[in-house]
From TrEMBL:
One Pfam entry name: FAD_binding_6
Protein name, as recorded: Oxidoreductase
Single Gene Ontology MF annotation: oxidoreductase activity
InterPro entries membership: Cbr1-like_FAD-bd_dom, FAD-bd_FR_type, FNR_nucleotide-bd, MRET, Riboflavin_synthase-like_b-brl
Classification lineage: Archaea, Methanobacteriati, Methanobacteriota, Stenosarchaea group, Halobacteria
CDD domains, A to Z: FNR_like
Residue ranges constituting the FAD-binding FR-type domain according to the UniProt record: 1-101
Classification via SUPFAM superfamilies: Ferredoxin reductase-like, C-terminal NADP-linked domain (SSF52343), Riboflavin synthase domain-like (SSF63380)
Superkingdom of origin: Archaea
PROSITE patterns associated with the record: FAD_FR
Length: 210
């Protein structure tokens, strides 16, 4: 589905990280783990980039979380950081096949801006009565309030800027569906950690941000 939608809220949720709430177009439905394509013209250049749902559902509105690495990112993500309520964006989607399908036990591994997808998914799984472990790697963490709330509601939540493998080993569960969200280096580190913990990385649902 292609649509032009209004931004309804923009909230800072950590260093260089914003959560952007958008109107859901009529008939739009997306599950945690799916992503949308956002398009805009910035300084006369046309851009299109993908962002993963960071809300537990997409009824009426949905949220994405954008993390901008000042050393790596380009003008488009900076443009998203500067959005305000009332601005409009062109979206298409949802896309992706590696999404939450009501699994009852989940382990979510998130790196950098992958934390948005992770909190949305974890919130949805807890709401559905599931069991949740979330390991988040970042040296400047975002979404701390929602992570604390998840912890209070019974999820195992680990935030680290160190070696992922020890923490993945601690939460490893043969019966859990593993989800991985982040840029390519993190995805590789997560696959190695799952393998080292005795799991099969090929069974994980993985979204590589590039
Ligand atoms: C399926 C999919 C889902 C995605 N979901 C999200 C999401 O939920 N949230 C989100 O913030 N981004 C997400 N991305 C990444 C997003 O689409 C953009 O690539 C990102 O915002 C940078 O866009 P840019 O135009 O500013 O920089 P670009 O010029 O596109 O960035 C160039 C390169 O810099 C590196 N880079 C950029 N930003 C970062 C960063 N923050 N950390 C580490 N390396 C970085 C990457 O290697 C990237 O390819 C997703 C990408 C894909 C493919």
């Amino acid at each position: 589905m292609d649509a032009t939608v209004a931004v309804t809220e923009v909230n800072s949720v950590g260093p260089n990280t914003v959560a952007i709430v958008l109107e859901s177009p009529d008939g739009f439905d997306a599950r945690p783990g799916q992503f949308v394509k956002l398009s805009a013209t910035v300084d006369d250049e046309d851009y299109a980039r993908f962002y993963t749902l960071s809300s537990p559902d997409a009824h009426d509105t949905f949220e994405i979380t954008v993390g901008v690495d000042p050393e790596e990112a380009g003008p488009f993500s900076q443009h998203l950081l500067d959005l305000e309520a009332g601005d409009e964006l062109d979206i298409s989607g949802p896309f992706g096949n590696e999404y939450y399908e009501d699994e009852s036990t989940i382990v979510v591994l998130a790196g950098g801006p992958g934390v948005g997808a992770a909190v949305g998914l974890a919130e949805r799984a807890l709401r559905d009565g599931g069991s949740v472990a979330l390991v988040y790697k970042d040296d400047a963490p975002a979404h701390e309030e929602r992570l604390a709330d998840l912890r209070e509601r019974g999820a195992t939540v680990v935030v680290t800027d160190g070696d992922l493998a020890d923490h993945v080993d601690d939460v490893h569960d043969d019966d859990a569906q593993v989800f991985v969200y982040g840029f390519a280096d993190f995805v590789q580190e997560a696959a190695d950690a799952v393998d080292a913990a005795g799991g099969d990385p090929a069974d994980a649902k993985v979204e590589n941000f590039g």
